[in-house]
Amino acid sequence: MAIKKVQVTQIRSTIKRPMNQKLTIKALGLGKINRTVEKELTPQIAGMINKVNHLVTVKEL
Q1: Phi first, then psi: what are they for 43, rounded to 5°?
Q2: Whole-model pTM?
Q3: What burial class does residue 16 get, using C-beta atoms within 10 Å of its C-beta: 0-12 exposed, 13-18 middle, 19+ buried?
Q4: Residue 1 pLDDT more than 80?
Q5: Separation CA 8–CA 13 (nearest Å)
Q6: Given CB 3.0 to 4.6 Å as the disulfide criterion, which of 26, 30, 31, 47 pairs with 10?
Q7: What is the mean pLDDT of residues 15-21?
């Protein structure tokens, strides 16, 4: 089975967001607008992306 990868880009600021969303963004390796990281799509990463989906865009690779 092939490992799926996703490209996650932060598109909105974490200012005035709850602390759990700020920590989730940091755990994904983001923190600044337009910063992009490449992650393997595991259930844990999918849950993190789902929690902050209004702050990021996701592109499957």
Answers
A1: -60, -35
A2: 0.91
A3: exposed
A4: no
A5: 14
A6: 30
A7: 97
Provide the percentage of residues in the chain whose pLDDT is more than 70: 98
What's the one-letter identity of residue 38?
Answer: E
CB 9 within 8 A of CB 52: no
Q: Domain boundaries in the chain?
A: 5-60
pLDDT confidence tier of residue 37, bands split at 50, 70 and 90: very high
d(CA 49, CA 57): 9
The per-residue b/e assignment along 35-48, b for 16 or more CB within 10 angstroms, e otherwise, is: eeeebebeeebeeb
Positive or negative, the CA dihedral 6, 59, 7, 60 is: positive
Residue 47 identity:
G
CA 59 remoteness from chain centre: 11
